[in-house]
Amino acid sequence: YKIGKELGKGSFGVVRIAKARNSKKLFAIKMIAKNMKNFDKHSLEVEIRILKAADHPNVMRLYGVYDELERTFLILELIRGSNLMDRILKTKLLFSEREAAKLTKDVAGALRTLHSILITHRDLKPENLMYASDDPASPEYSTIKLCDFGLAKMCSSPMEKMTSFCGTPGYMAPEVLDKHRSYDSKVDVWSLGVILYVLLCGYLPHPWVENAETTLRRMRSTDLEFKPEFWEKISATCKDLICKMLSLDAAQRLSAAQVLEHSWI
User: Fold this and answer.
1) What is the C-alpha R_g of the chain?
2) CATH code of domain 2-76
3) Would you please indicate which residues are annotated as catalytic (active-site) residues?
4) Which residues are noted in the entry as ATP-binding (predicted)?
5) What average pLDDT does this structure show over 33-38?
């Protein structure tokens, strides 16, 4: 590979554009320095295993792994567009129901595949959804890719529950906020429900308040609200799906597969 310009940098190392010398095809190469203070060998191995298993058109693809003494290189699909949050801020427009339905369908499809092989993302948010292109004339302008599996978990059996407190404030399911409870893959459906809500009105359904305990208490004491000035033109079918994705009771919440079966999708 011929290494090109830097695409991004994080605590893990750096991501650069790379061109395959034979095919001339472009990739993103994630270079992870093993001497970094926060390098976690086990977490990296888990992320690689998850990316290898996650085969879906709406999930960022891993093409190869090269391991050296001081660095590990991940050869990833090159995603040329910005993330969902950047697009929201750039366009300053709320999504139409049709646009929101397409995104919800694509991400729910990716989640259905991930959940079927016992992978839970655990940090679904607009910043971790990337567009294939930012060119409105491109057929890939509305193609979304699920990225960043740094907090993802691959369970060993369908009955295994998770307990780690992780995710992003505003997008974390109530059972994650409740440190006395375990949870399953439906936490991803909650996060997608939050994203859908935000796309249509521009604000979070349950904003973060001080800490996890206070936020959870506020969630449980207030009903999900659809303020008329933002929601009066949104269909009842859409609101029904949002309510079923944002059920405080995970047992009553839809699975990713059930989201895809909903009449609004």
Assistant:
1) 19
2) 3.30.200.20
3) 123
4) 34
5) 83
